[in-house]
């Protein structure tokens, strides 16, 4: 979109001010977080143009060094992003002398809590979408990894394996027995979990088994991943 292009242009213009040895890390952080931040801002201010302006301001604040702890080489960077989002949106409403609209808060939520919830929801969805896209790219390499099986489990959870096997066979154009369906589902779930863990690992600046598990738990993704977190 045009707004995404403008944000990327702002990033590229500011990129030269980043120390050369840190540019790759900053660029990786930007590519991981730009779209989830934009989504959160659009939900919070309810105005796409304002949200896109705030998104650019968000990244420029980082690059100007407005937040002394804003370095993607320390700690869990997403927590810092959440803090900056809170400041940014609060400043927006304060500058305009506006009341925070109820639609941006929700029942019983303060602005701070709502921002935290939006950011976690949007980042969780982003990671799931990335893992599903990676899973789809792998489908041609293995007949035992079939994303449609995950969709069936969600859409027809109460159905018996024989019915789900028949539905899957229709979708993928080949015979699937109930036993084969269960094997496909198990392997697809396992690979999906591995891909989510990979996405979380790549999003962290200190990816250890402990920090990966903490991030998965905070984002309510641990239920997908079981024991797939390797040391």
Set out the fold topology.
Elements: H1 2-15, H2 23-45, H3 48-64, H4 77-95, H5 102-105, H6 111-138, H7 147-155, H8 161-172, H9 178-203, H10 209-218, H11 222-225
Overview of this structure, please?
With 231 residues, this protein is mainly alpha-helical. The protein has helices at residues 2-15, 23-45, 48-64, 77-95, 102-105, 111-138, 147-155, 161-172, 178-203, 209-218, 222-225.
Distance between the termini: 39 Å
Helix content: over 70%
Round the Cα radius of gyration to an integer and report it. 21 Å
Number of helices: 11
Strand content: under 5%
List how many beta strands DSSP finds: 0
Class per helix and strand makeup: mainly alpha
Give a brief outline of the structure.
The protein has 231 residues and is mainly α. The chain contains eleven helices and no strands.
What are the salient characteristics of this protein?
mainly alpha, 11 helices
């Amino acid at each position: 979109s045009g707004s995404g292009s403008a944000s990327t242009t702002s990033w590229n213009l500011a990129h030269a001010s980043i120390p050369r040895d840190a540019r790759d890390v900053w660029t990786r952080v930007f590519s991981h977080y730009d779209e989830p931040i934009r989504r959160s801002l659009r939900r919070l201010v309810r105005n796409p143009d304002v949200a896109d302006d705030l998104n650019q301001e968000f990244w420029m604040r980082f690059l100007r060094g407005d937040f002394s702890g804003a370095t993607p080489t320390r700690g869990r960077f997403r927590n810092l992003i959440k803090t900056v989002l809170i400041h940014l949106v609060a400043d927006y409403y304060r500058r305009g002398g506006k009341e925070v609209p109820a639609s941006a808060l929700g029942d019983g939520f303060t602005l701070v809590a709502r921002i935290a919830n939006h950011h976690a929801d949007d980042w969780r969805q982003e990671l799931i979408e990335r893992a599903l896209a990676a899973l789809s790219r792998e489908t041609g390499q293995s007949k035992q990894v079939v994303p449609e099986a995950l969709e069936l489990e969600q859409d027809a959870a109460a159905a018996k394996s024989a019915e789900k096997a028949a539905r899957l066979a229709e979708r993928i154009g080949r015979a699937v027995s109930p036993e084969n369906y269960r094997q496909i589902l198990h392997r697809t779930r396992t690979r999906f979990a591995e891909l989510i863990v990979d996405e979380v690992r790549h999003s962290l600046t200190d990816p250890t088994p402990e920090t990966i598990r903490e991030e998965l738990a905070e984002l309510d993704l641990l239920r997908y991943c079981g024991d797939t977190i390797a040391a």
